[in-house]
Amino acid sequence: MKVFLPIAALAGLIALPYLDVPLYFMHLLILTLIWGFIGTSWSLMGKFGLVSLGHGAYMGIGVYTTALLWNEFGLTPWVGIPAGLAVAVVLAFVVGYPSFRFRVMGHYFALVTLALGEVVRLSIIAARELTGGSLGMTPNAVQPATPVSWYALQFADKQYFYYLALFCWIGVLIVWRLVDRSMARYALEAISEDDVAAASIGIHVTWQKLRITIISAALTALGGMLLGMYNQYLNPNTLSGIGISLEIVFLSIVGGMYSAPGPMIGAILTIAFREGLRTWFGVNLVGMAETIYGLLLILFIIFMPRGIYGTLEAKFREKMFPDPAANPANSAT
Questions:
Q1: The whole model's pTM is what?
Q2: Domain ranges in the chain?
């Protein structure tokens, strides 16, 4: 049963486009897969106590690097994506190494990453001649001659991008599993409990933190590229900065950042929530979504810190496998 359910779910996801799904729902499915991918990428750090509020910076730097190489030099995204990943990795190293080397932890590290997201967003806006500034830009220097262009990674049929997003989401789940089953997991858990004690038993604290940060940053940048290529419109306010970083944190914590399916559940709720707000408020009360995200995030951190999936999983295990020590009758004997 444990193996059958994931296989059945995967088969259902693969067969879904052939069920004549309406275009609007296919659009929501693609967005959900991309945001689930991004949330899982963030959770690779978050579940070990490395709370970053600046992952929007990696999204922005990755997607704008790819788009500018396409618009200015006509370089295919197959070249731009590795370049964007490289820039994101360098940025993560430049920020992460001194932070971890000099033991910038907790809310101080969160503030550093928060500033990083805003620096990237404001830099994109300042370079308006290249990026279009706050008005945004469209990565369309070379229009593909056919409806399906693998060279340009542009597809008229949403089915192609659905499978691309699904493939990437499965890939990040594999990365999650590899990290979860590696010795690095135990090292990072020890560091999150007490980094001084972890260092005293031979764990290289700076390297372990930096490695998981680079992996998380690179995957988040890839998620930003997917989102930008799918929407075919880039805007610094929707791909970097505080608002987008808060949305990543929100969906990860709400769904459950300590379990692989958690961020996807958070992405489903976030997309549904966003579409509901868009229908309800329209163009009025701009910024209301971020305000509600913040309030709900506080409530979840206080009352449901393991998220929806983590809480339900814990209750299921408690019901199916009760702890005999928790029974007063057993403790009395």
A1: 0.90
A2: 4-244
